[in-house]
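Hey, does this match?
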Amino acid sequence: MAAAAGVPIKQEAADDAMNLEERILELCKSDSKGIPDAVIKTELPHIDVQQRVTAINRLLSTGKIDLVKTSTELLYRLKDPGSASKIKGGDAQERLIYQIIEESNNKGIWTRDIRIRSNMPLNQLNKILKNLESRKLIKAVKSVGASKRKVYMLFNLQPDRSVTGGAWYSDQDFESEFVEVLNQQCYKFLQDKVDAGAELQIDPMLRRTRSYASSQDVWKFIKELGISKVELSVEDIETILHTLIYDGKVEMTVSATHNIASNSNSSGQMKLFRALQPLTETAGIMRMPCGVCPVFDQCYEGGIVSPATCIYMKDWMDY
């Protein structure tokens, strides 16, 4: 009778353990970045330490949660079921490397940083990286920030613009000709807008207002031209327009709007651009770096700022 009576008690204990695991999983779902042990203690105050540790260890061993180390604390994070199935069959070290690379998202991570975080010898790390690459779980991407270094990220991710350089780079080479063509076409569109406004027999202030164009308008014009092989965003076109502003060819103003378009910010303001026609040709001194250099009076041979070490002068001379 005693043995028979013990069966429901054991079953009830097992159910309690399962319920505890489910509650911990629910807490982990509440924050995608992970939760510290303190949160579990606060949310489940009636659970003693031994029960909590047993439940967490079981979730870790069954691959339902991950233990993630940050700079300040340890976090328990819900594991992506898709990631677990992809790395299935790999050993603990492969899973660790995969997890480190996964956390870097689409910005990637350098081999050196992986080695520091995993505390793994370089030869062993290189073998694991090659194995994961051959299984198409990760990929190596060249970074425009460091031509001799590669960053690793998950195979299905699109690299961040900070890694590839965005539309202005191709195979790590800056597409200067492409940028120059875009500069010319953007300016031509704005200049045509000014010329069309000048022909209107209306109030001068209204004529000036109509000569402005939004970055969305310029983007549509460039898209319809079909001169770009890559997909350009409104932000890309704004980058080009800002270079024209720095060249003194275009001016920008901000207008309040009730329709928040894709090129408007949250305060309801839209950027508008207008081509400028200089009254006189700029002096040669103003077209060279020295003419607009803010530390011109501190520049001398042998100093911290000098013509020999000036990168802007070198770029200008090469141009």
Notes: The beta strands are 65-69, 74-78, 109-110, 138-143, 146-154, 169-170, 173-174, 213-214, 250-256, 269-275.
